[in-house]
Amino acid sequence: MLHHTQSERYGLPDVFAAAAELDGLLVLGVIDPQTATILVSHWTEAAGSDDLGVHLAAGVSDAVRSLAVLAARVSPDSALEDVVVTLVDHHYLIRLVTLEDGDAVAVVLVLARQTVNLAMALRVLRYLPGVLPEFRSNGASVRTGTLS
Amino acid sequence: MNRLRRINVPSPDALSTHLVSLGRSGRSALLTARWPVGAEIAVSHGRVLHAHSLIAPSPEAMLRARGRQDEPPTNDDPPPRRPSAREAGVTLAHALRVRNEAVVDTLRELIVGGAEHPWRRRRLPHPPAPDETVDLTIDSVLAEAQRRQRVLQALAPLVGPDVPVARKAQIAPGRVRVAPQQWALLATTSIATTPRSLANTLGDSVFRMTCRVAELLRAGLLQVADSTAVDIRADTAFHTVSGMWFLEATTGAESR
Fold this sequence. Notes:
The structure holds two protein chains of two kinds.
Chain A: H1 2-9, H2 12-19, E1 25-32, E2 37-43, H3 53-74, E3 82-86, E4 90-98, E5 104-112, H4 118-131
Antiparallel strand pairs in A: 1-2, 1-5, 3-4, 4-5
Chain B: E1 6-9, H1 12-25, E2 29-33, E3 39-44, E4 47-53, H2 59-65, H3 85-112, E5 136-137, H4 138-155, E6 165-167, H5 180-188, H6 195-202, H7 206-218, E7 222-224, H8 246-255
Parallel strand pairs in B: 1-2
Antiparallel strand pairs in B: 2-3, 3-4, 4-5, 6-7
C-alpha cells in the first residue's frame, strides 16, 4: 500500500509516534477523499492487519462527500470541518484539512471507545496537520516552504 | 538516476511483469515504453521513484496549471516569512498528494494500455530532482492502479476519461452551490471536452478529474455531449454535488 514507504520517506512515523500516545488509538490515516487514496497511514498492533485500509479510505471518502452535500443544503453558509462517528466499540474522527490548491485531505483517527479520551483525541486531531513538519527527524527531503 | 539500467518494455503486460520482478528482487532499472506513447518509469531497489508518460500530466504540470508555483521575487516584495507549522504541514500534505497522484495514475494508464489517446505532450519531462521523487513499493502502486480501474469501471455508465462532457446550458446561477474547484471546472466546460483534456487544462490527474466530472454529472450540472445518455437530475431544483462510488467499487469487487 502507498502509505508505508511514504510515511518512512517523510518521517511521518514520528508524527504517528506522537499521536500513538493517545490511549485507544487503532488507526491514523491521511486520505484524499476525491480519489479514496490513502496518502499515509499507521495501523497499531491492536488494529490488526491494514488490509481493510482500502475500505476505510473508500468509506471515509464517500461519507465526507455525502456530508458535504448535507452541509450545503442545511447550513449553506458554512462548511464541513470535523466528522465524529460513534460505534459501539469505536470512534471514527475525521478532520478535513484544506490544501494549497483548495482541495482537502481527510485526517482520520480510529479509536477504541472504551479506552480513549475523546476530548484529547479531538485536540490531537485538530493540531496534527500543524505538527507534521516538526517531526521530520530522518532527514526527509520535502521542503516546507514552496514546491517547485 | 542516470545510472539506472535501461530496459525497453514492449507492452503493458510486459510492464506489469517487469515491475513485479523488480519489486520482488529489489533491483533497480529505468523502464522505457513506446506504446501507445512514450513513457519512463524509474525503479530503485524495488521501489518506484517516478513515472512519466506523454499522456499524463506530471506533478510539475499540475502545479503549473493551477498557478501554485512561486512567482519570481521582485524588489517590491516583502521578505519571505517563515511558514507557520500549520502552513508547512499543509504544504507537506499537498506535496504527498500531488506526487503520489501523478505517479500512480501514470502507471495505471500505462498498465491499462489501450487505444491511442487524442491528447499528448510532445516530449517527456525531465526526471524530477531527487528530493521531488516518490518512494512507493511496487505492490502498493499495482494494487492502487487496480483499485482505480475498478472505480472507473463503476463510473463507466456515467463517464470515462475520454468521454466529452459539457456544462448544461439551462443552469440557473442562483441555484448552484459548488466548491471553487468545481466552479473552475464548470467554467471550462462551456464547450464539450473530456476529463483527460480537463486534467491537463486544470492541473490534475486523469483519474481524479474523471471522479470530479462524475460528481458534477450526478449533480446535473454537466452532461455527456453528443449522446443519448440519461439526464440524471434534470428535474432537480437545487444542484449540489454528491456521489458514493468508492465503497461500492471496493465491496463490489470482493463480492464478484
